[in-house]
Specification:
heterodimer, A: 285 residues, mainly alpha, flat, disordered C terminus, B: 332 residues, MetI-like fold, 2 domains, two-stranded antiparallel ribbon, disordered N terminus
Chain lengths: 285, 332
């Protein structure tokens, strides 16, 4: 259908798009400013911080905050701890979650529906009611104050999330693909491995990234389970930098930059999958 | 279905195996032990692989969620100090909390924090989704940028705002006093009871609204374009199209996101713990922070868990309603 646009329609459209851009820019300023401020602060020297000169740009640009952070604090060990904990729990969650999600999405067996509901409910149970008993349990097992304790506890939220996300993915893959593979002589497991897994690769990637982000960002368990300063993870370590001293803000923001970098880098690189994964898998209504 | 095993016992309804769906074309002729067909009938055709694949999840859920949860319910009915054996006291902790003024205030604060945050996030999220569905260039790039607060570590965001809100050197006071000249002198955003709650809500909103936006956006994209064209042909205004086409189309997603965020916000620990630790004078004390303070400050574990579990009936209700919505969304 061809509609000739009159002058007024064009004008309305122009106003609308101007309005859209105005709102968009407001949102962007709101979202980006704290990150901008974090980065600017991390490059400011102590004298500049005290004197409120050139508020919005470092002058001079200094790296002293980063030097202090890397040489005079435990930041490097915390970074290693965070990597160890996040990577291990990501592998664990993705492996367990993939198998479970496939079974819950595709296979017919007793208790399937019940387990599917349980996974969803488990995903919704908040950590704030589990952290004390989990802590007691981890301590009884002799894993308090160790990274193993965190690696053991993190599946409590990563596995249900990954499983739920991937169930959606597996359900969206046409069942005929598996069936034809099995008619051609593949076993159930063979069809899963050769047909379904490759097709679900973007979903696996997205859910692994989310599991990684969740573990990397986790604060409450890490705060409660770990008392040894050297064994802290990044979020807990950073939060102990709050001293009230002016100079503290410089290296605190430097630490904040370096803590944000890995997740943002992964996110920028794989943004397409992550946005799709979030909207296709976790909330699809 | 020709592939139904000839030697399997006659099925009363003819429905158990095969007939209704061709869901297991993997049946191959195999020696007919009496047990295997029976197990398949009782436990489902794929029970072997199914049980094997689900077993790790069952173990994890039992060990990391079910058992701790039951233990928590038990502990909340005891007097338990760190390092001492628990003493059974029944509902004493819950009854005492009910009449405890500080706890009551934390309940009120939790609800204020949650409802205000969720309401603002809904409005901003709707705005974000509408802007991103309108005709703009580089749409997917902007979508990606706007989602960053949701991906960034919560603790980092909380620390950023702690610095932004700082009384003497924070940039917020600098902007309001020196750049815009709105205020004559700075505000102690987090140290004054009047502004502390609004300030922590602001951080929760900043972090959480992109998730609302991206979810609403996904819902809006799923609405068929013909509906809008039809509405336009019928002469519907922009507002009418939003009211009668967009809103009904994303109703389910809105419900899911609202309930999901209600649970998350109600249980948000990191933001308030880092920004105010519940202060000043309990003005921003919410239940998760109070739980932590009683458990690891006062070392009274039983009472702490009672604080955490006090809202369990309400939480359970929200979880059940929400999980029904989420399942419905899936099996559409």
């Amino acid at each position: 259908m061809i509609v000739r646009k009159g002058r007024s329609t064009v004008q309305i459209e122009r106003t609308q798009s101007a309005l859209s851009y105005a709102i968009l820019i407001t949102f962007l300023l709101f979202v980006v400013f704290p990150f901008y401020w974090m980065i600017v602060t991390s490059f400011k020297g102590e004298t500049q911080m005290r004197s409120v000169v050139s508020m919005f740009w470092p002058s001079p640009f200094v790296a002293e905050n980063y030097e202090h952070l890397l040489n005079k604090t435990e930041f490097v060990s915390w970074f290693k701890n965070s990597v160890i904990v996040s990577v291990s729990s990501t592998f664990l969650a993705t492996a367990v979650g993939t198998l479970g999600a496939y079974a819950l999405a595709r296979l017919k067996f007793l208790g399937r529906a019940f387990m599917a509901s349980t996974v969803l409910i488990t995903y919704l149970v908040p950590p704030s009611i589990l952290f004390i008993p989990l802590y007691a349990q981890i301590r009884n097992l002799g894993m308090a104050d160790s990274l193993t304790g965190l690696i053991a506890a993190y599946p409590s939220f990563t596995v249900p999330f990954v499983t739920w996300l991937l169930m959606g993915y597996f359900e969206s893959i046409p069942v005929e693909l598996e069936e034809s593979a099995m008619i051609d002589g593949a076993t159930r497991f063979g069809a899963f491995r050769r047909v379904i897994l490759p097709l679900a690769a973007p979903g696996l990637l997205a859910s692994a990234l989310y599991a990684f982000t969740q573990a990397w960002n986790e604060f409450l368990y890490a705060l409660v389970f770990i008392t040894n300063v050297r064994l802290r993870t990044l979020p807990v370590g950073l939060s102990t930098f709050i001293t009230g001293d002016v100079y503290g803000w410089g290296y605190l923001m430097a630490g904040a930059v370096l803590t944000t970098l890995p997740v943002i880098a992964a996110y920028i690189y794989l943004q397409k999958y992550m946005v799709e994964g979030l909207t296709a898998g976790s909330v699809k209504g | 279905m020709a592939s139904v095993q000839p030697s399997s016992p006659p099925l009363p309804s003819g429905e158990r195996v095969g007939v209704r769906g061709a869901y297991h074309p993997d049946i191959k002729p195999r020696p007919r032990a009496g047990l295997e067909p029976l197990l398949r009938r009782l436990l489902g055709p794929d029970y072997r692989l199914g049980f094997l694949f689900v077993a790790p999840i069952v173990v994890l859920v039992l060990a990391l969620v079910a058992y701790p949860f039951c233990y928590a319910v038990y502990l909340s009915m005891t007097r338990k100090y760190v390092g001492m054996p628990p003493v059974w006291v029944g509902l004493e902790n819950y009854i005492r909390l009910t009449y405890d003024g500080f706890f009551q205030r934390a309940v009120v604060n939790s609800f204020t924090f949650t409802f205000a945050s969720v309401a603002i996030k809904t409005v901003l999220g709707m705005g974000m989704a509408l802007v991103l569905t309108s005709k703009i260039r580089f749409r997917s790039f902007w979508t990606g940028v706007l989602l960053i607060p949701w991906v960034a570590p919560t603790v980092v965001s909380a620390l950023n705002f702690l610095w932004i809100y700082d009384y003497s050197l924070g940039v917020l006071n600098y902007l309001l006093v020196h750049v815009f000249g709105v205020l004559s002198h700075g505000v102690g955003w987090l140290s004054e009871p009047g502004t502390a709650m609004a300030s922590v809500i602001g951080v929760n909103v900043w972090r959480g609204f992109p998730f609302f936006g991206i979810s609403f956006l996904a819902g809006m994209k799923a609405i068929p374009g013909e509906l809008y064209e039809a509405a336009a042909v019928d002469g519907a205004t922009v507002l009418q199209r939003f009211r009668y086409v967009t809103l009904p189309g994303i109703r389910n997603i809105v419900m899911i996101v609202l309930l999901l965020s209600t649970i998350w916000t109600f249980n948000d620990f990191a933001i308030i713990y880092i920004l105010t630790k519940g202060g000043p004078g309990g003005a921003t004390m919410v239940l998760p922070v109070l739980t932590y303070e009683i458990a690891f400050g006062a070392q009274r574990l039983g009472e702490a868990i009672a604080v955490a579990l006090y809202m369990l009936p309400a939480l359970a209700f929200v979880i059940i309603v929400l999980s029904n919505y989420m399942r419905k969304g899936r099996t559409r």
